[in-house]
Amino acid sequence: MDTDHEISLDAAHRELLDQVLDKWSLSVLNELCERPCRFNELRRAIPAVTQKSLTATLRRLERNGVVEREVTSIRPVAITYRITPLGKTLRGPVDVLLAWASEHMPAIERARDAFDAQEDAAG
User: Fold this and answer.
1) Cβ atoms within 10 A of the Cβ of 28, count?
2) CB crowding 56-94: b at 16 or more within 10 Å, else e
3) Most CB within 10 Å of its CB: which of 16, 58, 88, 112?
4) Side-by-side strand order, sheet with 78-83
5) What digits encode the pLDDT tens for the residues 77-106?
């Protein structure tokens, strides 16, 4: 890691990362990277998400400019969600984080097990 480059995590950065890297946002972005989707298509693709959570997630992603919604018909109202060009730029950094997690998961699991064993012994 480049130690000459200081990473600054101010409140705005933390808020943005919280909003675009939470579990539902990552699932939604993963789906929308493949193709534009309507709301119910996203619900079927991500069955564990509730309607309320999906709505909130889409609104946060739209507010941050990484997802856009398009009204495709008026009666009945149909809305299609798609990833924006800005949203597509998230793919690389997210893939790097996922690769890091995959590579280091055995060490992380060992650390968790050791921590939990120490907590159990102390408790």
Assistant:
1) 27
2) ebbebbeebebbbbeeeeeeeeeebbebbeebeebeeeb
3) 58
4) 37-38, 78-83, 67-73
5) 889 999 999 999 999 998 998 899 999 999
